[in-house]
Amino acid sequence: MIELEGLPELVDPVLIAAFEGWNDAGEASSGVLAHLETEWKATPLVELDPEDYYDFQVTRPIVELGEGLTRSITWPTTRLLVARPPGAKRDVVLLRGIEPNMRWRSFCAEIVGLCHDLGVELALLLGALLNDSPHTRPVPIVGSVSDPGLARVLNLEPTKYEGPTGIVGVLQHTLGSAGLQAVSLWASIPHYVAQPPNPKATLALLRRVEDMLDIPMPYGDLTEEARAWETGVDELASQDSEVAEYVRELEERKDAAELPEASGDAIAAEFERYLRRRDRGTDG
């Protein structure tokens, strides 16, 4: 277990976490952490020992060349960073890592210990999965929470999923069992355009995090990148009649399933987000 020394006192910290790998279709969820780390200029706190959790024949280290052709090796691991978002009254701990290859229970126990040391009581875990969602429609975001009380507060349904899970599901369960509030948010990625990156899905997750935490999120270039991504997929789909027809079928199925009140809720949520960002001077 890592022991933190000389740690600054954090104010009501919340954890936002994502892992590359099985839980990260289109690199949409890890893209959120990479974006926030850059935009908020997050400060490194600690990283876990990769020897404990990674098989380097499966998740290999990366060799990089620096000045004078000096070599350095970056090992696969999980890192924690901290940031104070502009306009926010609380700190955010960013947990960015790669799904471990082994010892998941020890891995999750170590994360729980770090959360206790840092004073974290709420964790948002991000993921992305492949689905039959058309790329032309808003990215569906589904939430999972094991605590019925927290589900009511956040207007989320308690999870009813049964089946294989990744480190996001295991960590959420472990955090909840340790008395922390843990929520997972999942973006649905079109399976016919699964290659990363997917800035549209990253932006959708970022907006949902903003709604849940009421912390202004820096969109940066993501809005324009999302538009460009969708335009690019439109152009590719138009070049193949079978793909174009398949996308139209998905659109019709999606539109038929959407109730008018659901569309109204989406419009209301977007308007409320706009008002919050305008009041903080962050709209744009």
From TrEMBL:
Superkingdom: Bacteria
InterPro entries assigned: Proteasome_assmbl_chaperone_2, PSMG2_sf, Rv2714-like
Pfam families in alphabetical order: PAC2 (PF09754)
Protein name: Carboxylate--amine ligase
Species of the source: Acrocarpospora phusangensis
Source taxonomy: Bacteria, Bacillati, Actinomycetota, Actinomycetes, Streptosporangiales
